[in-house]
């Protein structure tokens, strides 16, 4: 997905939010609300729990920045750091 693709994404009109896989980093999604709000989400497994980690809103956080943030978060989780609990397992 390119930056232009992200800009053109529209909510499909169904109830709730829509999640679009972005590519470039496993688990990176763009969440689009019915009111056209857009948020970057990283879906990742931390231990035995699946977490949805917010990476910021679009367009404040660009596609490139979202991919960088997702890679950084993945590296921390793989290193055993769970910054959302501020502890190591």
Primary descriptors:
89 residues, alpha+beta, Double Stranded RNA Binding Domain, four-stranded antiparallel sheet, 4 strands, globular
Q: Over the alpha carbons, how many angstroms does the gyration radius reach?
A: 14 Å
Percent range of helical residues: 10-25%
N- to C-terminal separation? Answer: 35 Å
Number of domains: 1
Percent of residues in beta strands?
A: 25-35%
CATH architecture title: 2-Layer Sandwich
Shape: globular
**Helical segment count:** 2
Largest sheet: 4 strands, antiparallel
Kindly summarize this structure in a few lines:
This protein has about 90 residues and is an alpha+beta fold.
Describe the secondary-structure layout:
Blueprint: H1 3-8, E1 18-21, E2 28-32, E3 38-46, E4 49-57, H2 63-78
Describe this structure in words.
With 89 residues, the chain is of the alpha+beta class. The protein has a single domain (3-78), classed as Integrase, DNA-binding domain (Double Stranded RNA Binding Domain, 2-Layer Sandwich). It has helices at 3-8, 63-78, and strands at 18-21, 28-32, 38-46, 49-57. Strand 1 (18-21) and strand 2 form a beta hairpin.
